[in-house]
Specification:
single chain, about 240 residues, alpha+beta, five-stranded mixed sheet, globular
């Protein structure tokens, strides 16, 4: 099971953190700035960045995650399942659904195998009913950036997810809402390769598959974070 989860707290030991609070609070009283600025600086230094709220609170219904890679963007049928598995792991860990279950990716894969050629043309709500879920998180994935198979033409490898939540009882999209009543793409999530990942690809230390695998892990986490509040890593604790 994937273990990628955002870090909720600094790794500073409790005793050291308590002493840091005292030092920073004392220092804030001496700074020749306004009180509000000082208090904000102290809070940020001790507790880290402000949590990012969920963009949408999922109804507490049995849920499946479907990653649509019908264009073979990821060039490996295992990677859509990896995105789904990472997303489900984080949704469970952060209790995005208080009581309802999240369907394991293997169950979705078995249904896809059973439907075979019919899978691509089966409506999403029908898939949801066969999985016995109340809603589906559907993400269409495309690759933005490099236009060659080696992902080394100088542009940043980026995955684009277009995310929708579908009510399987009605077949209607419940999030994001349609703009002005018109059909529109889902909510867009961009996941870019880090500087370190680009360097490894351009130097030949990583294969294109390595880069897509890393982006898939990042995409699964970013997909899940749409549906729960999460805290960015503290300054200086961000891995490239």
């Amino acid at each position: 099971m994937p273990t990628a989860t955002p870090r909720l707290h600094s790794h500073t030991p409790h005793g050291l953190r308590s002493r840091l609070r005292c030092v920073l609070l004392f220092a804030s009283l001496l700074l020749p700035s306004t009180g509000c600025v000082n208090i904000g600086m102290v809070h940020h230094a001790i507790y880290g960045p402000t949590p990012t709220p969920a963009l949408f609170t999922l109804p507490d219904l049995a849920t499946a995650v479907l990653i649509d890679d019908s264009d073979n963007t990821l060039r490996d049928p295992r990677l859509p399942r990896q995105i789904s598995a990472v997303a489900i792991h984080n949704l469970r860990f952060h209790e995005a659904l208080p009581t309802a279950p999240l369907i394991d990716p293997d169950i979705v894969t078995r249904l896809e195998s059973r439907l075979a050629d019919r899978w691509a043309n089966t409506p999403i709500d029908d898939i949801g009913r066969q999985l016995q879920v109340g809603q589906i998180i559907h993400a269409k994935v495309t690759l933005v950036g490099p236009q060659n198979d080696t992902l080394d033409d100088g542009r940043t490898p980026t995955l684009l997810l277009e995310v929708k939540v579908i009510d399987t009882a009605t077949g209607k999209r419940i999030w994001p809402p349609h703009a002005n009543g018109q059909a529109s793409p889902g909510h867009r999530v961009y996941v870019e390769a880090t500087v370190a990942q680009r360097r490894r690809r351009l130097s030949g230390r990583d294969t294109p598959h390595d880069t897509l695998t890393q982006l898939s892990d990042q995409a699964g986490l970013s997909l899940a974070q749409l549906f729960y509040a999460w805290q960015p890593p503290p300054p200086g604790d961000i891995e490239e």
